[in-house]
Design a protein that fits this description.
Bound molecules: adenosine monophosphate
Mean pLDDT: 97
Low-confidence stretches: none
Distance between the termini: 17 Å
Strand order of the largest sheet: 4-3-7-8-9
Strand content: 25-35%
Largest sheet: 5 strands, parallel
CATH class: Alpha Beta
Helix content: 25-40%
Number of strands: 9
CATH architecture: 3-Layer(aba) Sandwich
Shape: globular
Structural class: alpha/beta
CATH topology: Rossmann fold
Number of helices: 5
Order of helices and strands: HEEHHEHEEEEHEE
Length: 173
Amino acid sequence: MDFKNIIRDVPDFPQQGIIFRDITPLLAHPQGLTKVIQSFQTGFAELNIGKVDAVIGIESRGFILGAPLAIALNCGFVPVRKPQKLPSAVFRVEYTLEYGTDTLEMHQDAIAKGQRVIIIDDVIATGGTAAATAKLVQQSGADLVGYGFLIELDFLAGRQALPAVPIVSLVNY
Ligand code: AMP
C-alpha cells in the first residue's frame, strides 16, 4: 500500500504556506490502519529495539496510531496530553513553538523507572513536540528506546532535535 497516495495534502492549512498532511483518508481506508501498524512493527523489529513495555502516544493523532500499536506489541498505552486534561499527578514539560510556548503532561505513575518505551506521533515536523515528550520520559526514569512517526518532514530536520534512539518513519516528504 502506498501511504503517500492516500494521505491528503491540504495547502495553506492551518495557515498560509503550510501543506497539512491529512491522514484521515488513510485512517478511513479499510486496510489503512492495519498496514500502518504492521509497518511500524516491521520497522521496529528491523531496528532490533527489543522488548517494549509501553507505547506513548502524543495527543491527539498519536493516540489513534499508538493505541493499536500497543495492542500489536502486547504492551501498555500511555497518553501524553495537553495541559489540564489528566486528572492525577503529572510530569509537565514546557517547550518553545515558533510563536510562544506549549505544554505537555503525562501521569507520574504511567510508566516506571527502567521500563522500555517508544513514542508515537503522526508527524514529525520541527521535532519540538517529540523532543518535549522525551523529557517527560526522562522525568519518569523510563528508558526511551525508539520513536515512530507515520510522516517525517525531512526538510525541517526534526530528528536532529531528538535524543539518539532508533526512529521509524513510514512516509517522508
Ligand atoms: P513539531 O513539534 O514541529 O515536530 O510538530 C509536530 C506536531 O505538529 C505533530 O503533532 C503534528 O500532528 C503537527 N504537524 C506539524 N506539521 C504538520 C503538517 N505539515 N501536517 C500535519 N500535521 C503537522
